[in-house]
Amino acid sequence: MSIVPGWIRSYQKSWLSGDVVAGVIVTVMLIPQSLAYALLAGLPPEMGLYASMLPIMAYALLGSSMTLAVGPVAVVSLMTASALQPLAAAGSADYVHLAMLLALLSGGMLLLFGALRLGFLAHFLSHPVISGFISGSAILIAVGQIKHLLGVKAGGANVLDTLTQLAQAVPRTNGVTFGIGAGSVLFLLFARKYLAPWLVGTGANPNLADIASRLAPMLAVIVSTAMVAALRWDQTAGVSIVGAVPQGLPTLALPGVSLAAIGPLWLPALLISMVGFVESVSVAQSLALKRQQRITPNRELLGLGAANLASALSGGFPVTGGFARSVVNFAAGANTPLAGVISALLMGVVIAALTGLFHYLPHAVLAATIIVAVVSLIDVQTLREAWHYDKADAMSLLATAAGVIALGVEEGILIGVALSLGILVWRSSHPHIAVVGRVPGTEHFRNVARHAVTTEPGLIAVRVDESLYFANSDALLDTVESLVLAQPDTRYVLLVCSAINQIDTTALGVLTDLERSLGQRGMTLLLAEVKGPVLDRLQNTPLGQRLQGKVFLSTHAAFEFVRLNAAVQPSSADKVASASV
Fold first, then answer.
1. Which of 14, 128, 250, 272 could be a cystine partner for 315, CB 3.0 to 4.6 Å?
2. Any idea which architecture 433-577 has in CATH?
3. In the chain, what are the domain boundaries?
4. Rounded CA gap, 556 and 564, in Å?
5. 527: which strand partners?
6. Helix spans in 41-191 (H)
């Protein structure tokens, strides 16, 4: 198999202009984001730039998406800070080393998952859990950045504690800093909502207008940096600035690995890997569908794993695919990952020669960039839809968000996963069990509580809409026993197995006991519509041998068997059960 990516082998000259334009535009967007997300992670600003160069190239070699833009993102940066702050002082040498080690562990896990083709693991994080996690993280991030807008020092173990300290610090607000920060927030919100429609109204191309609105953070950076430098607000007004950013390409070296450091980092690394993978795959799939392209989840694992290893190697921190950058990359005309490679090369030029331009960049502008970016991540729409459709999912979303806000990012997502699995087990342990009858004049069978159907005298036909296993087999037994008790003239119990994909050992034992118990009371257990794999396993069991001749291809055949073999009785006419549809 060739080690050269398919997009390189099939590259067409007509794609080059789109890739170049997209690469330039994404670079302009990526610079302020990289600096801002390094601030969010508690790291020196240059690490954000480092994490936006080699990781992009590594993903281009192994990833499957043509337009996914990889680099630092808000949620993963918050998870990085959450994992490292209990272990070292933010910005210290130990903190930097641990951030690189976290990227190394995350990359190694993703590569291992990709090699083992474990892309399906992402399904353990349901959409409500991811939505709740991201929404809670967005609130946590936004609250944590307010101190930079005010120019004060404040922190806390949770959102409530942070808000309390912020309220106490309000009298110490730096007026100039607040003016810069609040002005930047208002400008960015205006640009996000109104700039594109205004440009379209003046005759601009809609795609270009949308891209221009997304590049507003760079304009805010340029203007604010120029003002602080010209007026020396860092000295005269106490405005906090980025300061000196080391110039020159990073030295390539793997961070030192020790068991003592890996111990507290393996779980955060796993969660970062899973959350980053799910976020990236969802973005990549949505963009690929617009061009009738396909992505491969297992290749995405490899691509993201390589990107994180490259980040660790080049002095960065954990990265993943970003939604906003990917959308801009797509809209700007990117055709292949070459757009990302061009962006990485341009970022290399910035790191090598232009970092001095960021010296007077106010922290308040970076905080404004983060706040405006994350506010849009608060997913009220999914909560509203889940509440109307499935309140259990809505509660999972709310519980995950509340867990993140009150307890922290790791605890929040673990709560969400535990709730999702708990709901799954609860639902499967309480399966929908319907008594069915024939739709008159047809061979179709429906729930007697929902449709006007006819039933056979002496027959109870039950459909279980779930596989049978240890957690729900007693529910079937209880239902059948209660039905038999309510209908003493029962001679046959028919189990319609159309929705049963598996019967485990516990359920097999329950069915065996049920068949024996019914037989002792003069009743016969019948099965219908048993799926091939289930029937194959049943045939070699004592229950399967006793059910010879009592397993039917269709529910209709079972009903006909009962009708033809029923003893002649002066019983009442067929029962008709009806209910509103």
1. 250
2. 2-Layer Sandwich (3.30)
3. 15-246+254-422, 433-577
4. 12
5. 495, 551
6. 45-50, 54-62, 74-84, 93-115, 127-150, 159-169, 175-190
